[in-house]
Amino acid sequence: MTTFEDNYKEIERIVEKKRYEWTLKADLMLDFDDVKNIIIAHIWKKWHLYDQSQPLGGWTATIVKNQFSNILRDRYLSTSSPCSRCPCNMGGNTCSLYGVQSIECSLYKTWYNTKRYSHDVRLPVPIENHLNDVHKMPDTIFDLETSIKSLHFRIQKVLTNSEWEIYRRLYIENKDEEETAKELGFKTSEKGRKMGYKRIRQVKTIILQKAKKILRDEGVEEFHE
User: Fold this and answer.
1) Which residue from 107, 133, 158, 197 has the highest number of Cβ atoms inside 10 Å of its Cβ?
2) Residues spanned by the domain of 110
3) What is the DSSP string of 128-183?
4) What confidence tens digit (pLDDT) does each residue in 87-144 have?
5) Rounded mean pLDDT of 135-158?
C-alpha cells in the first residue's frame, strides 16, 4: 500500500495539468494556485478512499473535476445572479423575456435585494458604479505587524502540535525547510531528497488552506494578548 506522501509529486502533476480548465478568472482572491492547494489538501483527506487497484490518474482527475464544480458553486454560483443559469439570458445583460436584466423578473428582484452585495464583494465591479460608496469610506491605517501576530495567534488554535512546530519555525522564526527538518528529527530514505520534505510540504499545504479560511471567515484582526 502506498501513501499520499509517496504519490504527492504525481498527484501535484495531475492537478497542475488541469490549470487551463479552471475558468473562474474574475475572483482576485482565488487563483488557480489557491485552487490547486485546496484540491491537494482534499485528496490528502480522502486518501483512505482510494482503491489502489485502480489507476491514480483517473481517481485524481475525477476529484479535480468535482472540486472545480464545488469551488465554483461555493465561490460564485451561490451568490451570482439567477440570470447566469437562465435560458432567457442572451449574453451580457440582455434578456429575451424582459429585454434587459431587471427587477421586473421576480427571481432577479429577489437576488438583487438579498445577494447582490455578497456577489459584488467577491468579484471586482466597475468603480464608477460605486463612487459614492468609495468617497464615504473612512481613512484607515493598516497595522501589518499586529495583524501578522493576530494570524499567528489564531492559526495556532487550528493546527496540531506537530503542524504548529513546523509553522513556528518556518513563518515566525524564518528558518528554512532543511533547518526545520533537522531540528524536528525528520529523515528521508530517498536518495537526493532533503530530510522531511514530504511532511513539510504536506503541512505547508494544510497551513495555507487553514490560513486562507481564517482570513476569509474572520478577516484581518489586530492582535490582543
Assistant:
1) 197
2) 87-114
3) GGGHHHHHHSPP----HHHHHHHHHHHHHTTS-HHHHHHHIIIIIS---HHHHHHH
4) 887 776 788 888 887 888 888 888 778 777 666 665 555 555 555 555 555 555 556 7
5) 74
Query: Which of 24, 38, 132 lies closest to 79, judged by CA?
Result: 24
Q: Which three cell numbers stand for residue 163?
A: 503542524
Residues 31 and 133 in one domain: yes
- Residues, the chain, total? 225
Decide if 24 contacts 30 (C-beta within 8 A): yes
Q: 39: buried, middle or exposed (CB in 10 Å: 19+, 13-18, 0-12)?
A: buried
What does the longest C-alpha to C-alpha distance in the chain come to?
68
Contact 206, 163 (CB under 8 A): yes
